[in-house]
Write a structure and sequence with these properties.
Oligomer: single chain
Strand content: 25-35%
Order of helices and strands: EEEHHHEEE
Number of helices: 3
Structural class: alpha+beta
Number of domains: 1
Helix content: 25-40%
Radius of gyration: 15 Å
Shape: globular
Number of strands: 6
Length: 126
């Protein structure tokens, strides 16, 4: 398991930056480590417990699907990435999220593809 927590990894031309990224192998994707990492990464946002649980359940469902797909497609790595809006983030806001899953071939072309599970958190009404 390899995780990076870039403080402000902005994407040019977008209003998103990475709050945290976790790189996993199939052997390390299941279990409490992913849940604990995601909880830790989201902690600074001071999310309501019910909303945090929705994100955690969504991640668990995506991971279960990825593990099931891995029996057919051999993935090199799994990436769990959390994006938030660029700029100052004030706690105590109403948040929403959506999830995007991607399967991408690596640059070498003959190496197993990578599976990315991306969470985009946004301030509702913002």
């Amino acid at each position: 398991m390899n995780h990076t927590d870039p403080p402000t990894h902005n994407f040019e031309g977008t209003n998103w930056h990475i709050l945290g990224e976790l790189e996993l192998t199939i052997e390390s994707i299941a279990g409490d480590a992913t849940h604990a990492w995601l909880t830790d990464v989201l902690h600074p946002l001071n999310l309501r417990a019910d909303f945090l649980n929705k994100i955690l359940n969504s991640a668990q469902q995506a991971i279960a699907r990825a593990v099931q797909a891995e029996s057919v497609i051999k993935f090199e790595h799994f990436h769990l990435i959390v994006f938030v809006p660029s700029g100052p983030i004030s706690p105590k806001r109403n948040w929403g999220f959506f999830r995007v899953e991607k399967i991408e071939n690596t640059a070498e072309g003959n190496v197993a593809p990578e599976h990315a599970i991306e969470f985009y958190l946004y301030v509702e009404g913002g």
